Amino acid sequence: MGHRSRKRQQIPPKAPDRLAVLEIIERLEREGRFDVDAEDDPPTIPLLPDMVDYLKVRPDSILKRRTAYLIANRFVDKLIRERKLVIKKVYGMEHLNGLDTGAVITCNHFNPFDCFTVERIFQRSGQYHKRRLFKVIREGNYTNFPGLYGYLFRNCDTLPLSGNKKTMYNFLTAVDTILQRGDFILIYPEQSLWWNYRKPKPLKNGAFKFAEKNRVPVLPIFICMEDGSRIGSDGFPIQEYTVFIHPPIYPKEGLSEREKAAEMRDRNYEIWKSTYESFYGIPLEYTTEGTEECG
């Protein structure tokens, strides 16, 4: 009587760099520094006005955009096929499909793949052939990020921030144009990336000011995570994503412009907080004090 050999996944040790990042996240949470990235950003090369075509209207920009999306879609298809990106369930697609104006889409930020997740959901929605999804990114990610990610950062409908006043003027003009013509902009209002951090972080005002100024809604997306059965090359379980798309938040009448933006921000945070507590079955608590304010 023979015996069968069962193939088992070789579990690598937990990567020291990931363990170090988790320690930094714990420290930043204790210190209440929620808007500080836990990992080093690439060095920032100043983004000058002639270095970016925000609306992708130049012939060379149009060609690069098409090429970049072909590459990006194949890359994401491969991630999904190899189960390195697992979108387990999406709730509330009707809220995305139901938008009939431009919108600011907000999402919690915990992994470079969360952008791919939102992009793929957008591509599966009824909006895909009617509108475009732009993404706000950091200056250094546009000017000095290496390799494949750098190429995608520069060409897949991204809106890089900048420390240059003229470039930022062009950025703000582009934001207004995009929203008023009916397209979407993805913004991470937490303003930091903490790897696999499950809690919502306090929110900054920028995304909500853009929405209020252009009289468009904010569409809150919150992604929850579960450990999958497969272990990644870093020694940690690959996360499986459950995506919650919530009803759009509109500016409230009878308030000043500043109050409208703050009220939308607070509602967005409360929606994320409720989603977190419902999905994980625990109250949202931080290891530091002074986090009652969302801005």
Give a structural overview.
- This protein has a 7-stranded mixed sheet, with helices on both faces.
- The chain has 295 residues and is of the alpha/beta class.
- The N terminus and C terminus are likely disordered.
- It has one domain: Glycerol-3-phosphate (1)-acyltransferase, CATH 3.40.1130.
- It is globular.
- The protein starts with 15 loop residues before the first helix and ends in a 15-residue tail after the last helix.
- The chain contains 9 helices and 7 strands, in the order ααβαβαβααβαβαββα.
Approximately what portion of the residues adopt beta-strand conformation? 15-25%
Shape from CA axes? Answer: globular
Low-confidence stretches: 1-6, 291-295
CATH topology: Glycerol-3-phosphate (1)-acyltransferase
CATH level 1 name:
Alpha Beta
Q: Look at the helices and sheets and give the structural class.
A: alpha/beta
Q: From N to C, what is the helix and strand string?
A: HHEHEHEHHEHEHEEH
Look at the structure and give the mean pLDDT: 94
Question: So, the CATH homologous superfamily?
Answer: Glycerol-3-phosphate (1)-acyltransferase
Instruction: Summarize the amount of helix as a percent range.
Output: 40-55%
Major sheet attributes: 7 strands, mixed
Q: What is the second-level CATH architecture?
A: 3-Layer(aba) Sandwich
Q: For the largest sheet, list the strands in their spatial order.
A: 1-7-6-2-5-3-4
User: What is the CA–CA distance across the termini?
Assistant: 68 Å
Number of domains: 1
